[in-house]
Design a protein that fits this description.
Number of strands of chain B: 22
Number of strands of chain A: 29
Structural class of chain A: alpha/beta
Largest interface: A-B, 28 and 34 residues
Distance between the termini of chain A: 61 Å
Shape of chain A: globular
Number of helices of chain A: 16
Oligomer: heterodimer
Number of domains of chain A: 3
Number of helices of chain B: 3
CATH class of the largest domain in chain A: Alpha Beta
Distance between the termini of chain B: 11 Å
Helix content of chain B: under 10%
Largest sheet of chain A: 8 strands, parallel
Number of domains of chain B: 1
Order of helices and strands of chain B: EEEHEEEEEEEEEEEEEEEEEEHHE
CATH architecture of chain B: Beta Barrel
CATH topology of chain B: Maltoporin, Chain A
Structural class of chain B: mainly beta
Strand content of chain B: over 45%
Chain lengths: 587, 443
């Protein structure tokens, strides 16, 4: 006891201080990113289970925490994950209208760790443990808004009124009119008395410590002028509203054009790099913030990271939009390193893999993005141009899971799991870096929020399931073959055919570097065996005649893979069963 | 005479037949010298007793006297705590029965004493810290003591069922069968078994008496289940705990002078107070079996003529059962207190008390986000009036001024807006009294 005491007196505790800054990323295209809602991954410490729903109501906290991630790091490694993207770490308003902030997007304190998940030491430990397992950590960051921290005192009575009206819009609906979340007014929310309008509504800051609805921290955010005060968005096509309205749920929109707000946001989020040694940020609601905010925020964050010695700090963003031109705009010089690829989610994942659209779409979008996304590496950025670092995903916390959509809306003959496996084959072999949503590997099939936020412990963390093994095999292939990570892309077969044509549903592309070439062939058709050949003209490849190719994916899964030999003219006809996929490697 | 802190261990004393009254009590009013009430300023589990609030025990003892073959003694001790009516204007108080038991002897040719009921079942304390480092159980049960010359073996078993937090007992309203309305049913009902054994050997010398003691406890809590939410039943696992401890004592070299040295090793449930539901520190399966506590403590008093010196100190290591290695709940803590007193006359004395407390958690202070190692130093001046010379002479009327210096880390240990967060310097100026008069628990 005494020697231990002496040791305890002299030693600082682990993770008690800002960590040394270390670098773990060579090229972000090497990564397999795994998106985690911390509350839903694993409960490693029941002592922070405040307000946890024992009935596992998906709108409440369920108990997941950083210790759970630490305890399950081997699960991540077995899956082939090399980067985790964790939900926001900051302190939130605890709940609102019976729904809890388990997701982390309702900031109250920009500077402290949400106690449901651990503390700053535990977060540092998480980052360190992940780094020890060669897993990088991205933290989700919200700059657009804070939680529902104030109300608009429209009637000047000094309290937040909530009223229920029936049929106010002429319909048979029950409407809730609330001073917490009034509808948009471009003038700013106006007050109203019995004699009419009475000018801008004063903001009602409140102290409700029981749900942590407290003024924001740092205290400088407790400033009426730092918010747009225009109320809740009602028309997503109105650009002013998109940028300046409160987010649904009364999430108060920060006046991010205000230089002081920008400075403060840069400071608080720079500090998270210093304090935790994380490897990048995932930036929420990018298109809801003035574009020029990003040209100031991103360089400043990069500069801070560089000043610490942090190299290739990733700034990836969420532009929740299918308009590729719009999405690409946020990857232009001085802006984001990349964005999660919503156009590809809609056009490729949904259009092709879920609902049987033409594979020509895959090539068309790829070629389009080579132009629409940033062409140049950012100064002080990650060393890869945004157009080469698309972050492809199939689903996330804001959309229904792949299996749900296919099951609900897919064609009658579609096997949802087979469709998912074919989509995963594309996701983990196409250009850029894949982003997997937790639970995909366990066949989770939840619909929209909150059904798509299932606790992973429902799966028992099974690692022998079909989907887990499928992803693990693809991840291993990706690690073993550089072209699948960093190689150029050449489409060798795409088609408009989706019916009973010879090549209906076929998709093939080569990924190649100077020394190696990999050919990926996928049949996206639900019911028909197809081939990369039309009218006797097989697919041309970049391989030398006589090259023997083996299905690396099949070999990884079963121990042996089918082989193909490239014809004398360099062509190759690959025939695959419905939803079949092969990753052909030499030898 | 026996040193005061040994007296609570005496089982059946020679009691006069009939009814006897006794009491332990303390009362005090104080100011923080800023207009507010004086506040206790501590960061360790068992800090200075100087700033304690009012507390009263009233003992009523019914005994049949030592002439009877079968001696008995019924002890009833209601106790009250909380602010006084004359202070807060509220006609209320917190009331508890601290003793309610019957003790008998003479029922066997062997020197046996038996008791049953509710009882504070305690050993020796550190007076300056109001802390029983080794054996301190509050229990409802029974015990048997065997007291041959120079030896003492005390066995005890009891039960408790704490009302707090739906952890040991939970009731639920269910629809009334065959009627309208509800009826209350017990859906969780699990009792903690508390068992203890204490073996002591006394070595009487010419000028000095030594005593060695070994002590053990066993805590057993069966599994159960409770309603966590509507229609959700939650299993609660069994838990257990043990205590092993040693005590060495010496006294007799001077009036009211003694020294105690303790070591306590507790595991599982026993690492917490038996009247406490662990608020945190659970393993992921909701057991606390892996929790542990090591404690070394020392208390003593020496009096020589007009001077007396009282001392108390402990060092404690507590580790809870969760897997968190950077846990603010896991901690080292220590305190040392020294109170020299000068007796100017038989009735007037002046005590000076100095203490220092230190806390080193294994994790970050959630209030500051930093690894705080709070320390508090106290200096107190204690002029007093008592019936005779001696640090334990009671009743005692006293003034007291306590100055506490909190370092930066100690201030951060208190909540925002707490007066103790605001300043390094805290004052406590009080006037009060303390007594033990024929007390069943203190003498």
């Amino acid at each position: 006891m005494i020697p231990t005491l002496l040791l305890a007196c002299s030693a600082s505790i682990p993770y008690g201080e800002d960590p040394p800054i270390t670098n773990h990323v060579e090229d972000w295209r090497d990564e397999v990113i795994y998106q985690v809602i911390v509350d839903r991954f694993a409960n490693g410490d029941v002592n922070n289970d405040w307000n946890v729903s024992r009935s596992e109501d998906l709108n409440r906290y369920l108990g997941g925490d950083y210790q759970g991630l630490i305890d399950r790091v081997d699960y991540l490694s077995a899956l082939g994950v090399t980067t985790i993207w964790i939900s926001p770490v900051v302190v939130n308003v605890e709940e609102d209208a019976g729904i809890a902030s388990y997701h982390g997007y309702w900031t109250q304190d920009f500077t402290d760790v949400n106690p449901h998940f651990g503390d700053i030491a535990k977060l540092r430990e998480l980052v360190d443990v992940m780094h020890q397992h060669d897993i990088k950590v991205l933290v989700d960051v919200v700059v657009n808004h804070v939680g529902q921290l104030f109300y608009y005192d429209i009637n000047h009575n000094g309290q937040a009124d909530v009223t229920t009206w029936y049929g106010t819009d002429g319909s048979d609906s029950l409407d809730i009119v609330t001073e917490w979340d009034p509808a948009y007014d471009e003038r700013g929310i106006q007050s109203w008395t019995s004699l009419g309008e009475a000018g801008p509504a004063p903001l009602g800051w409140v102290s409700m410590p029981e749900i942590n609805r407290e003024p924001p921290s740092p205290a400088e955010f407790w400033n009426d002028e730092w918010y747009h005060k225009r109320g809740r968005v009602t028309d997503w096509s109105d650009l002013d509203q998109v940028v300046m309205a409160d987010f649904p749920g009364g999430l108060k929109d920060l006046a991010t054009e205000n230089p002081n707000v920008r400075r403060a946001l840069i400071e608080v989020f720079s500090d998270w790099i210093t304090r935790t040694n994380v490897d990048g940020f995932r930036l929420d609601t990018v298109k809801h913030v003035e574009e020029d905010f990003w040209t100031e925020f991103c360089p400043a964050i990069r500069q801070h990271a560089a000043s610490l010695g942090k190299e290739r700090f990733l700034l990836m963003g969420e532009v929740f939009d299918g308009d590729d031109a719009l999405v690409g705009r946020y990857t232009q010089p001085d802006m984001l390193d990349s964005v999660v690829d919503f156009p590809a989610k809609y056009q490729v994942v949904d259009g092709v893999f879920k609902y049987g659209g033409a594979t020509r779409t895959v090539q068309t979008l790829y070629e389009q993005q080579q132009v629409s996304w940033g062409q140049l590496e950012h100064e002080g950025g990650v060393g890869v141009a945004p157009r080469d670092l698309s972050l492809n995903f199939m689903d996330n916390h804001d959309v229904a899971r792949f299996l749900f959509d296919v099951d609900q809306y897919g064609s009658e003959g579609t096997d949802p799991v087979a469709a998912l496996e074919s989509a995963l084959a594309w996701l983990l072999t196409t250009d850029g870096a894949p982003v997997l949503y937790y639970g995909t590997e366990q066949g989770f099939d939840g619909g929209n929020d909150p059904a798509n936020r299932e606790p992973l412990w429902w799966s028992g963390y099974e690692t022998e399931g079909e989907l887990f093994r499928w992803i693990a095999a693809l991840s291993a292939l990706r690690q073993a073959h550089e072209p699948l990570r960093r190689g150029a892309v050449s489409f060798t077969w795409t088609t408009d055919h989706t019916g009973q044509e010879e090549d209906a549903g076929m998709l093939a592309y080569e990924r190649w570097t100077e020394g190696e070439r990999v050919l990926v062939v996928i049949n996206t058709h639900d019911t028909k065996t197809s081939v990369t050949s039309v009218d006797g003209a097989p697919m041309a490849t970049g391989y030398a005649p006589g090259t023997v190719l083996v299905d690396g994916l099949g070999r990884a899964l079963t121990g042996s893979g089918q082989t193909w030999t490239v014809a004398a003219d360099g062509s190759l006809a690959v025939e695959l069963p419905p939803r079949g996929a092969v990753v052909l490697v030499e030898g | 005479m026996l040193p005061l802190s040994l007296l609570p261990l005496v089982l059946v004393g020679p009691a006069r037949a009939g009814v006897e009254l006794g009491s332990y009590g303390r009362v005090q009013v104080s100011t923080d010298a800023r207009g507010g009430a004086g506040e206790p300023v501590n960061v360790v589990s068992h800090g200075s007793r100087l700033e304690q609030g009012p507390y009263l025990e009233l003992d009523v003892v019914f005994a049949n006297g030592e002439d009877e073959a079968l001696g008995y003694r019924v002890v009833v001790t209601p106790a009250l705590s909380g602010d006084l009516f004359h202070y807060d204007g509220q006609w209320d108080a917190d009331l508890a029965l601290r003793n309610l038991y019957l003790e008998v002897d003479g029922f066997s040719s062997a020197p046996l004493v038996a008791w049953a009921g509710a009882r504070m079942w305690r050993g020796d304390d550190i007076y300056l810290l109001d802390f029983w480092p080794l054996d301190d159980l509050n229990t409802v049960g029974g015990g048997l003591s065997y007291r041959p010359p120079d030896w003492a073996l005390d066995l005890h078993a009891g039960l408790n069922r704490l009302a707090a937090d739906d952890w040991m007992v939970q009731t639920e309203d269910v629809p009334l069968d065959g009627g309208v309305g509800t009826e209350e049913v017990l859906v969780l009902d699990r009792q903690r078994f508390l068992g203890s054994a204490r073996l002591g050997r006394t070595f009487e010398g010419q000028a000095l008496t030594f005593r060695l003691r070994a002590y053990g406890e066993l805590h057993l809590l069966p599994e159960g289940s409770r309603i966590a939410e509507d229609f959700v039943e939650e299993a609660l696992p069994a838990n257990r705990g043990t205590v092993l401890g040693l005590q060495a004592s010496a006294w007799g070299w001077a009036e009211d002078s003694f020294v105690h040295l303790w070591y306590r090793y507790a595991t599982g449930l026993a690492a917490w107070d038996e009247l406490e539901v662990p608020a945190s520190g659970y393993d992921t399966d909701w057991t606390v079996t892996d929790a542990s506590e090591h404690l070394v403590a020392l208390a003593g008093n020496h009096e020589a003529g007009p001077v007396g010196v009282m001392a108390g100190t402990y060092l404690r290591r507590f580790q809870d059962a969760d897997h968190n290695d950077v846990d603010v709940d896991d901690r080292w803590e220590a305190i040392a207190a020294l109170r020299p007193t000068v007796f100017f006359t038989d009735h007037l004395s002046l005590g000076l008390e100095a203490s220092h407390q230190w806390l080193r958690p294994d994790g970050l202070n959630p209030r500051s986000g930093a690894h705080d190692v709070p320390q508090i130093t106290k200096l107190a001046v204690l002029p007093a009036i008592q019936p005779r010379r001696g640090g334990f002479a009671r009743p005692q009327l006293r003034l007291q001024y306590v100055y506490s210096y909190l370092d930066d880390d100690a201030r951060w240990w208190f909540a925002q807006d707490d007066v103790r967060r605001r300043s390094h310097h805290q004052h406590f100026v009080g006037v009060g009294a303390e007594w033990w008069l024929n007390s069943a628990s203190y003498r």
